[in-house]
């Protein structure tokens, strides 16, 4: 069945509620309204107010309740309306949930899924379009997932909900309605921590995730035609834990790499990937690894975001820089 990402996520949530008797969905306006993006539309009517319910406008309280419920055998699925609203819930997410199994000596788990819309390209308001995954991956005990397409979104979300540790599930705003693809209606899972080789190649490896996958594919198609080479493209899918084995295997084969991320340059996913490659495969490199990122500034106002975000043209330039070194 053809679905966009929003529809694929909604179907995953519906399957989870039907198959996991202790799964609960809650957050701001997720019930009758169906959430700010209508992702949960219709779920309260189908499963009842005890399973899908609204909360006060208080992210710290929402996530704190999720931690408490997780110790009592529930599988909370929390929706945070926009990524910029998580700062007041950082303690509950990155400290209490992430450390619960460790600090309880394995007595308790925190099987919580934090669904969080993020990312730009939609001319959103301030605090709505940030990419904060760099903050998240630095906290041990929590998994971070960022799908790039509807098929992966459904399978990864079902894996996240059924995981016994907390998972931050990042849903890119631009991808909710960008395109449709064939998604099976049945229940299926995609393992967390496993990257996907979108396209095999010989000459250079491009590593990316989320909304940067599509412009990266287009950039690679152009440079392949222009230069008669092939580019290997890796979609990370899971940012923590990283699939380091997949990354190193590819770079060892191609000997060059470009990394594309929508988050600011410093201390992000790209920086960690470069460190991992340097530790495990530096002698395979024939050129410095190139990062394509926005500058280290706050996310700009919507009118100028196109000049801030990585583009197909910037990705092509980065590929050429690595190839011509």
Output the keywords.
325 residues, seven-stranded mixed sheet, five-stranded mixed sheet, alpha/beta
Task: Give a verbal description of the structure.
The structure is a single chain. The protein has 325 residues and is an alpha/beta fold. It has helices at 5-19, 43-47, 59-70, 90-103, 133-136, 150-162, 213-227, 244-254, 269-281, 312-323, and strands spanning 2-3, 23-27, 52-54, 75-79, 113-118, 143-145, 167-172, 181-182, 196-199, 204-208, 231-235, 238-240, 257-260, 290-292. The strands form three sheets. A seven-stranded mixed beta sheet has the order 3-2-4-5-7-6-12, with helices on both faces. The longest helix has 15 residues, at 5-19. The radius of gyration is 20 Å and the shape is globular.
Distance between the termini: 45 Å
> Which range does the strand content fall in?
15-25%
The largest sheet is: 7 strands, mixed
- SSE class: alpha/beta
Please tally the helical runs, counting DSSP H or I stretches of 4 or more residues.
10
Overall pLDDT metric: 96
Share of helix among residues? 25-40%
Q: Assembly type of the shown chains?
A: single chain
